[in-house]
Design a protein that fits this description.
Blueprint: E1 2-7, H1 19-37, E2 41-44, H2 59-67, E3 74-81, H3 87-100, E4 105-110, H4 115-118, H5 128-139, E5 148-151, E6 156-160, E7 174-178, H6 183-190, E8 193-196, H7 202-218, E9 232-240, H8 244-250, H9 252-264, H10 280-290, H11 292-299, E10 303-305, H12 307-318, E11 324-330, H13 336-349, H14 351-355, H15 358-370
Parallel strand pairs: 1-2, 1-11, 2-3, 3-4, 4-7, 7-8, 8-9, 9-10, 9-11
Antiparallel strand pairs: 5-6
């Protein structure tokens, strides 16, 4: 398996005048460290107006800075919101970043899953999938040489040459956000890499890997003329320390991440709080006090523990044949020093074993895609729950 690191750029209250400055510069230092340690990918989200949960509205700016501080790590948009950004501007920014990074961009695309974000852009939940699909059809031809014109149900673009062009040809690898597990099969049908932002078991991952590849092989319907990207990456809560107890003590922000995720993805019919009306850290702290068993259970999930604990969990997860585990380390009030130490210990004690198995996995994938290995059609109905049994519940 490959390993990525994941940034929402979370910032729990209270905030000082320097809080966001420290957040951004610490995250860049962590990413630079991860590059030197041999991590494969860094994924940065695009979110708007989600106080404390994410202060990352301009990932292309952050990744542009990262491109000048790193040499090898792949720089992933995880994701660009195609519902709230015009396809031409997206193509321009992705291509410019690909040039600056010497061809290291991974282009993840998504819709947004929160009315808090969509409503200010006059986008409804009901129309976001249609807008996203039309934006994909519109943006892909813009990476090719020469001019392009497009006319679709949502976007009409006159003949123009969208510049610059990306370093990678015909375009950077394409991914889509899979906020709901069933979207993984949809990503396969569209020939896109699946970015799974869930917290699932190895058994669930196994079922969805089968659904994904069977969709690619038996039901492929690309939205446009692009190079398919058969890849599955799943997010996991993460903290590595010498003992399980130390790792859990340092990973409190992991459950804050889940708490905020559930809060902002709750019923779209409820009233949105006014800016500053809700202190998410206070709400989270109150929840922990009222639900100590659930809070402790949530910390026992994911990849939080000693190197031996993480090796044991990853060996089981590896049997599902996912391509990448994306490690969620920067969350809540997790300390910069602990995050860096965690990245270093994991890279030294855990990552080499699983990096060594990448050639065998790639051979398996080649045989699956060529038809030499036929995957069973597994019933995914038992595995549609977005959050696992150990996840935070509200």
């Amino acid at each position: 398996m490959k390993f990525g690191i994941f940034y929402e750029l979370q910032l729990a209250r209270p905030w000082s005048p320097d809080s966001e400055w420290e957040l951004y510069h610490n995250a860049l230092a962590q990413l630079e460290l991860a590059d030197g340690l041999g991590y494969d990918h860094a994924w940065v989200v695009e979110h708007h107006f989600l106080e404390e949960y994410s202060h990352s509205p301009a990932p292309e700016v952050f990744l542009g800075a990262a491109s000048q501080r790193t040499k090898n790590i792949r720089l992933g948009h995880g994701i660009v919101q195609l519902t709230t950004s015009h396809p031409a501007k997206v193509a321009e920014r992705v291509a410019a970043l690909d040039i600056l990074s010497n061809g290291r961009v991974e282009f993840g695309m998504g819709e947004s899953a929160s009315v808090t974000e969509l409503e200010p852009f006059d986008i409804s939940f009901e129309e976001k999938r249609e807008i996203w699909e039309d934006a994909v059809r519109c943006v892909i031809p813009m990476f090719a040489d020469g001019g392009v014109a497009y006319s679709g149900p949502r976007f009409n673009f006159p003949l123009r040459n969208v510049l610059p062009k990306p370093r990678q040809k015909p375009h950077p690898p394409l991914w889509m956000a899979c906020s709901q597990l069933e979207t993984i099969a949809y990503a396969g049908r569209r020939g896109l890499g699946a970015l799974g932002f869930q917290f699932v078991s190895a058994d669930a991952a196994h079922a969805w890997v089968h659904a994904y590849y069977n969709a690619i092989l038996r039901r492929l319907e690309p939205l446009a003329d692009y190079r398919t990207n058969p890849n599955i990456a799943l997010v996991s809560l993460f903290m590595c320390a010498d003992t399980d107890e130390e790792a859990r003590a340092q990973a409190d922000g992991a459950t804050f991440f889940q708490f905020c995720l559930r809060y902002y993805s709750a019923s779209r019919d409820r009233k949105r709080p006014a800016p500053g009306e809700i202190d998410m850290w206070q709400e989270y702290s109150a929840w922990k006090r009222a639900n100590p068993v659930a809070a402790e259970t949530a910390l026992s999930g994911g990849l939080i523990g000693s190197p031996e604990t993480l090796r044991r969990k990853l060996r089981k997860f590896e049997t599902s044949n996912i391509d990448q585990v994306i490690l969620l380390n920067q969350a809540g009030r997790n300390r910069h020093e602990d995050i860096c130490a965690s990245l270093e210990l994991f890279a030294q004690e855990v990552m080499p074993e699983f990096h060594a198995n990448i050639p065998a996995h790639e051979e398996w994938k080649t045989r699956v895609l060529s038809g030499d290995i036929e995957l069973d059609e597994i019933d995914t109905e038992p595995f549609k729950q977005r959050f696992g049994a150990k996840a935070v519940t509200l």
